[in-house]
Specification:
Layout: H1 2-26, H2 32-44, H3 50-75, H4 80-87, H5 95-108, H6 110-116, H7 127-132, H8 137-173, H9 175-198
Helix pairs in contact: 1-2, 1-3, 2-3, 2-8, 3-8, 5-6, 6-8, 8-9
Pfam families: VTT_dom
Main location: membrane
Family: Belongs to the DedA family.
């Protein structure tokens, strides 16, 4: 099962990875914690280049971050909470997530944009208060790009480790190992979906 998923990621190529990361940022259907490690596995197997995987994942996520940034600028700080209450459920967003992101931004400013790119749960939503507060575009892009680059590189590197462990287990346990790893991956993704859906 895992091998098939990796093959799909490898077939989609860099454009596909960028598109998936863009979608994950805009309407999180698949967590980046699933996309980038599998892309890293594909790179370890020679189907993709690791640098290309990291760059394409970063670009895709950055484009999604820009969308939320400009939406935040349009909405403004006063209407941000009301907008999240009214429309947030369509994007897996809650007013609580926006409040948390606003607190981070109010406390740490531009540093929050960098740091939050590596914090699950508010990684995407920090763009809204940054835009609503009128943060300049260049610092926003710089902080977002650096934080996202580190995050995607870490996840892709995790994929490299997963590939090595996967091959070792496959040699020792045969076909049963593929089923076990596939089941584990499925449970991780399922847990992530349930966690997002149960968020208030």
């Amino acid at each position: 099962m895992l091998e098939r998923v990796i093959e799909v990621v490898g077939t989609l190529g860099y454009l596909g990875i960028a598109a998936l990361m863009f979608l994950e940022t805009v309407v999180p259907p698949i967590p980046s914690e699933a996309i980038m490690p599998l892309a890293g596995v594909a790179a370890a197997q020679g189907k993709l280049n690791l640098l290309g995987v990291v760059v394409s994942g970063t670009i895709g996520a950055l484009l999604g971050n820009l969308l939320w940034y400009y939406l935040g600028r349009r909405i403004g700080p006063k209407r941000l909470g009301r907008w999240a209450d009214r429309y947030g459920r369509w994007f897996g967003l809650s007013a609580r997530s926006v409040d948390t992101a606003q607190l981070w931004f109010a406390r740490y400013g531009a540093a929050a944009v960098f740091l939050c790119r590596m914090v699950p749960g508010i990684r995407t939503w920090i763009s809204l208060p940054a835009g609503a507060a009128g943060m300049s575009l260049v610092p926003f892009l710089l902080c977002s790009a650096l934080g996202t680059l580190l995050w995607t590189a870490l996840l892709a590197w995790t994929g490299l480790l997963l590939e090595n462990n996967y091959r070792l287990a496959e040699q020792q346990l045969g076909p049963l190992s593929a089923v076990a790893f596939g089941g584990l991956l499925f449970l991780i993704v399922l847990w992530k979906f349930r966690r997002k859906n149960s968020a208030p």
